[in-house]
Design goal:
Layout lengths: L3 H11 L6 H15 L4 E7 L7 E7 L4 E9 L3 E5 L2 E5 L5 H20 L4 E9 L2 H4 L19 E6 L17 E8 L2 E6 L7 E2 L2 E9 L3
Parallel strand pairs: 3-6
Antiparallel strand pairs: 1-2, 2-3, 4-5, 4-10, 6-11, 7-8, 9-11
Helix pairs in contact: 1-2
Length: 213
């Protein structure tokens, strides 16, 4: 198996930024294969027959399995890095991003509970500080769903009663987190500032580890 924190540290040295979530997924899977050379890798692994939900990365050998869900949320950034130019867009409102990340944790808890020798990881990589900074106001439509530094998540998490149906279309169901997780953000990288770089240069990540009970 591999240590995901160490692996992300290594990855940040040669891939400090990604074009898309799919780019991040592929790069992380490749890095896992480099560090865990005897593992088998699957991308977009179906969670169950007939279901649309798929696991971003599944790595396994004859004994252990590693299940990973990824999110990559961005603010605007223009940055030439090496021989590439990165144009990152603004992904918009954070509440849906928080909901979908917590949904990943719920999904991984279910996946881990149904199998043996599986460790799950939910990872969110972003250059949007609104995800990691504590809110200035405790209220809000997504107060229960916030994932800032130091937050402890557990139990039923849902939108505030006053939220409009249009805002949460496709995300209406409350989420149930069976484990208890204290959220700790870590630095991923900061793009070197020079005359051509514009936008949000600092990237941090949140990693939640889900293990068998």
């Amino acid at each position: 198996m591999v240590d995901l924190h160490n692996l992300l540290g290594t990855l940040s040295n040669h891939r400090p930024v990604f074009h898309s979530e799919a780019d991040f997924q592929h790069a992380l899977a490749w890095e896992i294969h480099v560090k865990w050379s005897n593992c088998s890798l699957r991308l977009e692994y179906p969670l169950s027959a007939g279901e649309r939900d798929r696991l971003d990365i599944l790595a396994f050998d004859q004994r252990d399995q590693l299940a990973i869900e990824l999110k990559y949320k961005t603010k605007p950034l223009f940055a030439p890095v090496g021989n590439e130019v990165f144009w990152l867009k603004d992904d918009g409102a954070q509440p849906p991003g928080r909901y979908h990340f917590l949904s990943d944790i719920q999904r991984l808890e279910q996946f881990v509970s149904e199998r043996r020798n599986v460790t799950g990881y939910a990872i969110l990589l972003t250059n949007d500080s609104a995800y990691w900074n504590p809110p200035k106001k405790q209220s809000g439509i997504d107060a229960s769903l916030r994932i800032h530094e130091g937050r402890v998540i557990n139990g039923v998490l849902k939108w505030a009663p006053e939220v409009s149906s249009g805002t949460v279309k496709g995300m209406e169901e409350p989420l149930t987190i069976k484990g208890t997780y204290k959220l700790t953000w870590r630095d991923y990288c900061e793009i070197e500032l020079h005359q051509y770089v514009k936008g949000y240069r600092k990237f941090r990540y949140l990693l939640v580890k889900i293990e068998e009970e």
